[in-house]
Amino acid sequence: MTATAIHQLTTAAHGAAPSVVAAVLRLLQQVDSPAEGAFVARALNALARLTEALDDTTLGDAAGARSDYEVLLDALDAPAALAVLREDDPLVGARLRGLRARARLLAAEGGTLSSTEVADILGITRQAVDKRRKAGRLIGLVTGRRGYAYPAWQFVPERGALLPGLEEVLHALREHDPWMQVAFFLTPDVRLQGETPLAVLRRGDVAAVRRAAEVYGEQGAA
User: Model-level pTM?
Assistant: First the structure.
C-alpha cells in the first residue's frame, strides 16, 4: 500500500464510526490471497456505488434487517439501487428474486444445521454424515468454506433419526439438485391437495409424496 493510500485510509478512519472501522478492519484481515483481494476490491466498489445511490431513509431501513446478508438484499431491492445495477446487469431483478427465494428456503422449518449438529442427532461421525449426503440420503446445501448446511426439517431429534420416508422420497428426486429438492418439500403441491410434501410426509403418507416426487419437474407438474 502506498503512503498516499495509507494517509487517505487513516483520514477516513478518523471520521468514521467505530463500528465501520471495525468492519473494514475485519474485512482487510481476511484478505490473504489474490482471489480474495480481487473479490473484496470489486465488492467494495459496488458497495460504494450503492451507498451513494440510496438516501438515508432507505439505508436506515436496510440496516434494520435481521441479518447482515439481508441488509444487502434489502438495499439491493431499493428502486434507486436497481436502477444503478441494471446499468451493468439487465437481469439483476431476477437474480435478486432467486437469492431471496434461496434465503427463504434456508430459513424455513427450523433453518439449517451444521454437519456436527447432524452427527450429534444421528449418533454418527461427521464423515458418515458426508457419506450419506454424497449418496443422496440427506440434503446438504453448499455454504462455501463452511461446508454444508443441512435443512433441520429432515430430522426428528427426539428420536435421533431421519424423518421417516425421507430417503425413499430423495431417491425419487435423485435427478434434481439439492436446492430443487428443498423447493419440492417446502412448496404446496396440487397433487397433495395443496399441502407441502413435507407436511404430508410428516403425517406418514410416504407413498403419496413419493408419487409427487416422481413427476416433479415434468411438463405440467406442480
Answer: 0.65
